[in-house]
């Protein structure tokens, strides 16, 4: 049997020390190959066109052309999965993450932890890069896409025997863009609370909230322990704590990762199944691994309506693929179809009122 081709990674950083550090980390994994390196954004554009790497690690603060500007050009001209390696902190980190997500960057990782060779950071980066082998990238327009409302289309088949009171969503790699696409289609009058686990780098949940909030008609906030679920809005799990539903409140827990993640979508879904039973909707979006699949199955067994993102629109068809494989998904839909089904369920709730 022929060996699988190695993942070819282009390193872009103006620091020779940082380039060598990243090259050494990549060399520790035999399934990864260094395709080349560049010292600024302009060099990166030429290297991407010439070398056609599978993945790019991209620094932000570089001379000639910044990482953000390079990312925008790459995603317009030669779309390639990009992992931004950032040393920014505080407000700078939040602003960078917001701009990077809009530019099409798939993930952001902290430079300091990698420079210190922290084992968890190194393992996470290598795992993330290898997951990029199955990433689908989309050519970005020069101007952001404006969301004008829900997608039109024929009504979807309704499989839920009860009216919903909560929407629970799990997502990982590629999830922020899909979340924005779904949430921006929900009107300000959408009455169901939406609870979200999105796998992110520590400290970036607030940035995600700001970025989603810029497109949403609903209020978007970081979840807090004890938040009541008696009002509309989108609640994003903080990046280092599990988020659960108990009764009609949110609970945050410090506990070990589940399916390699904290927060975990499976932890959230299981708690929703226990507290809401059939009066909930579970949605599992793009992401590597299998987090959320088992929890979505528990929601389905409790009578909830369950949805998995389809393969064609997923950046990484891992988590939703596993949910589909085990039979946990009632519907398999693209983001506009997911938004349409949520609106259909809301209209049904109004009709039943």
Q: Could you please describe the fold and organization of this structure?
A:
By secondary structure, the chain is an alpha/beta fold. It has 2 domains: 7-134, Response regulator (Rossmann fold); 167-352, Rossmann fold. It contains 12 helices and 14 strands. The protein has a 7-stranded parallel beta sheet, with helices on both faces. It has a 5-stranded parallel beta sheet with strand order 2-1-3-4-5, with helices on both faces. Strand 6, helix 7 (175-183) and strand 7 (193-198) form a beta-alpha-beta unit. The model is unreliable at 141-145 (pLDDT under 50).
Short description:
By secondary structure, this protein is an alpha/beta fold. It contains twelve helices and 14 strands.
Radius of gyration: 20 Å
Count of helix runs = 12
Alpha carbon gap, first and last residue? 61 Å
Instruction: Give the strand tally.
Output: 14
Low-pLDDT segments, ≥5 res: 141-145
Name the helicity range: 25-40%
CATH 4th-level superfamily of the largest domain? Methylesterase CheB, C-terminal domain
> What is the fold-level CATH name, i.e. the topology of the largest domain?
Rossmann fold
Order of strands in the sheet with most strands: 8-9-7-6-12-13-14
Question: Order of helices and strands, N to C?
Answer: EHEHEHEHEHHEHEHEEEEHEHEHEH
What is the architecture of the largest domain at the second tier of CATH? 3-Layer(aba) Sandwich
Write down the overall mean pLDDT.
87
Helix/sheet category: alpha/beta
β content, as a range?
A: 15-25%
Q: How many separate domains make up the residues? A: 2
- The general outline is elongated
Largest sheet: 7 strands, parallel
């Amino acid at each position: 049997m022929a060996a699988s081709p190695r993942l070819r990674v282009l390193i872009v950083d103006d620091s020779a020390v940082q380039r060598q550090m990243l090259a050494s980390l990549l060399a520790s994994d035999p399934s990864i190959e260094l395709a080349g390196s560049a010292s600024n954004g302009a060099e990166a554009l030429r290297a991407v066109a010439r070398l056609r790497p599978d993945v790019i690690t991209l620094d932000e603060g570089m001379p000639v052309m910044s990482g953000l500007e390079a990312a925008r050009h790459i995603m317009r001209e030669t779309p390639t999965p990009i992992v931004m390696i950032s040393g920014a902190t505080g407000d700078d980190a939040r602003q960078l993450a917001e701009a990077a997500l809009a530019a099409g960057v798939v993930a952001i990782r902290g430079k300091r932890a990698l420079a210190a060779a922290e084992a968890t950071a190194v393992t996470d980066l290598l795992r993330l890069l290898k997951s990029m082998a199955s990433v689908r990238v989309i050519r970005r327009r020069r101007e952001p896409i404006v969301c004008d409302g829900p997608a039109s289309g024929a009504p979807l088949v309704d499989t839920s025997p009860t009216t919903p009171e909560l929407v629970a969503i799990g997502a990982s790699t590629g999830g922020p863009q899909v979340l924005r696409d779904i949430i921006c289609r929900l009107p300000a009058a959408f009455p169901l609370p939406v609870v979200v686990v999105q796998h992110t780098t520590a400290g970036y949940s607030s940035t995600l909230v700001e970025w989603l909030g810029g497109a949403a008609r609903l209020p978007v906030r970081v979840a807090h322990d004890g938040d009541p679920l008696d009002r509309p809005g989108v609640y994003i799990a903080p990046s280092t704590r599990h988020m659960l539903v108990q009764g009609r409140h949110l609970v945050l827990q410090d506990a070990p990762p589940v399916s390699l993640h904290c927060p975990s979508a499976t932890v959230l879904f299981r708690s929703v199944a226990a507290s809401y039973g059939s009066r909930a909707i579970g949605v599992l979006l793009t992401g590597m691994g299998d987090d959320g699949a088992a929890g979505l199955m528990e929601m389905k067994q409790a009578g909830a309506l369950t949805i998995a993102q389809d393969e064609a629109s997923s950046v990484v068809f891992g988590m939703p693929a596993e949910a589909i494989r085990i039979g946990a998904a009632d519907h398999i839909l693209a983001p506009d179809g997911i938004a349409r089904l949520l609106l259909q369920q809301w209209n049904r709730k109004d009709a039943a009122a």
